[in-house]
């Protein structure tokens, strides 16, 4: 007998969905209001905001708002209409692509509407069922989903473990010899949850022994690392070894859109084979002109990145001096590792927001192992030393309550309701 598809959905809401009744609107789908900044409004009160990826503080920069507003007024949000291949192509899209390529020292670039959508579709376009994918187990969901679409063989290596990476390259090489395909290796420039840089230099060195192409998702490295914010490849001095470079506008550029950069023939192939772009409406003009302005500010205003790192260093050194475990972050991403279960984490975050006016993201199972809590802080160029000092005081207070069982008792009461 055929089952009703929705019966399963009603019975099993998923590892996060099962908390929806108690979490929605506060712990998940919260509403931060007011201008994007270091302090915003949550539940009617001002909070220090550490959960916005506006690394360089461009979201509400007057120069950015001026360009965004002028383009919205003159071009509207509809122009250009249609997919790029048919009727949605403009000289501004071409200009943005060339400037992005020049910025990251690649021959050409291809603009895509969204980072997640673009990465899934690019992986699908780059490999056939004869090809083999090798990827880091901690890569972003967009990469995981792109790999899942792959009809061929795939091998996953332990996070940032070069020995494991090489073993899987050996397996991939043997498999490719049988299928007649090639190998695509995928890593991130910066791993967004823990803040570690991908071991790009060591991976690229493996090209001396193995024949593979290297795709790097540098969403968090673009604008924050390397000379002039050019990314993790420049930070590690290996940009030339990255065959396909990817970055998004949604973080340092505080906008919408993303791009791939590579040799011209690779980019042309993506242009004519990435289904998500071939059959999707073109990125609206205010997003394109706005991205051109933001990119220009990255090039000409080094103080933005300097301010970001001034705050980052103050926050991370202050937390470490206070005895907090930040793991092995090498970037602006600041994860604070604590031990506890999901209900305790909910009670702790509520205390942090309501009584200490600090808003940060909470990361729990299934994103990370059970029994572990990450409070993830994203410093920006707009944050101040006052923000840092108040946050460290707040974190010290909640750590004590977590240790003495206060949150566990509160959680038991919440769960009983």
TrEMBL record:
- Family according to the record: Belongs to the class-II pyridoxal-phosphate-dependent aminotransferase family.
User: What EC number(s) does its UniProt record assign?
Assistant: 2.3.1.47
Q: Which cofactor does it need?
A: pyridoxal 5'-phosphate
Pathway linked to the protein: Lipid metabolism
Alphabetically sorted, this entry's keywords are: Acyltransferase, Pyridoxal phosphate, Transferase
One Pfam family from the record:
Aminotran_1_2
What's a Gene Ontology MF term here? pyridoxal phosphate binding
Task: Enumerate the InterPro entries for this protein.
Answer: Aminotrans_II_pyridoxalP_BS (IPR001917), Aminotransferase_I/II_large (IPR004839), AON_synthase_class-II (IPR050087), PyrdxlP-dep_Trfase (IPR015424), PyrdxlP-dep_Trfase_major (IPR015421), PyrdxlP-dep_Trfase_small (IPR015422)
**Record's protein name:** 8-amino-7-oxononanoate synthase
Q: Which top EC class is given?
A: transferase
Q: Which organism is it from?
A: Tenacibaculum piscium
Q: Where is the Aminotransferase class I/classII large domain?
A: 46-393
């Amino acid at each position: 007998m055929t089952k009703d598809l929705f019966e399963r959905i009603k019975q099993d809401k998923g590892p996060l969905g099962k908390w929806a009744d108690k979490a929605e609107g506060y712990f998940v789908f919260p509403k931060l209001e007011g201008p994007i900044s270091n302090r915003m409004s949550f539940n009617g009160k001002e909070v220090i905001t550490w959960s916005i990826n506006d690394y360089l503080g461009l979201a509400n920069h007057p120069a950015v708002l001026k360009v965004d507003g002028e383009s919205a007024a003159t071009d509207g949000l509809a122009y250009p209409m249609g997919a790029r291949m048919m009727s949605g192509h403009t000289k501004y899209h071409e200009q943005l692509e060339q400037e992005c390529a020049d910025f990251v020292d690649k021959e050409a670039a291809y603009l895509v509407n969204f980072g997640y959508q673009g990465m899934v579709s690019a992986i699908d376009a780059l490999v056939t069922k004869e090809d083999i994918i090798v990827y880091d187990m901690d890569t972003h969901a967009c990469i995981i989903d792109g790999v899942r679409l792959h009809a061929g063989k795939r091998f996953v290596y332990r996070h940032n473990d070069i020995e494991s990476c090489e073993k899987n390259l050996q397996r991939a090489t043997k498999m490719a010899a049988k299928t007649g395909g090639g190998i695509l290796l995928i890593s991130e420039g910066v791993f967004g949850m823990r803040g570690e840089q991908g071991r790009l230099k060591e991976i690229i060195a493996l090209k001396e022994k193995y024949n593979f192409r290297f795709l790097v998702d540098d969403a968090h490295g673009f604008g924050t690392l390397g000379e002039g914010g050019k990314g993790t490849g420049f930070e590690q001095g290996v940009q030339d070894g990255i065959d396909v470079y990817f970055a998004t506008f949604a973080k340092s550029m505080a906008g919408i859109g993303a791009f791939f950069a590579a040799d011209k023939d690779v980019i042309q192939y993506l242009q004519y084979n990435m289904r998500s772009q071939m059959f999707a409406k073109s990125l609206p003009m205010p997003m394109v002109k706005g991205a051109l302005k933001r990119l220009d500010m990255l090039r000409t205003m080094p103080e933005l990145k300097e301010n970001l790192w001034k705050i980052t260093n103050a926050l991370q050194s202050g937390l470490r001096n206070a005895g907090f475990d930040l793991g092995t972050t090498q970037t602006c991403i600041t994860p604070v590792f604590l031990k506890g279960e999901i209900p305790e984490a909910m009670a702790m975050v509520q205390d942090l927001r309501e009584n200490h006016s600090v808003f940060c993201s909470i990361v729990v199972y299934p994103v990370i192992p059970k029994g572990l809590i990450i409070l993830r802080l994203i410093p920006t160029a707009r944050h101040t030393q006052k923000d840092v000092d108040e946050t460290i005081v707040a974190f010290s207070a909640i750590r004590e309550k977590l240790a003495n069982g206060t949150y566990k008792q509160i959680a038991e009461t919440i769960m009983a309701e």
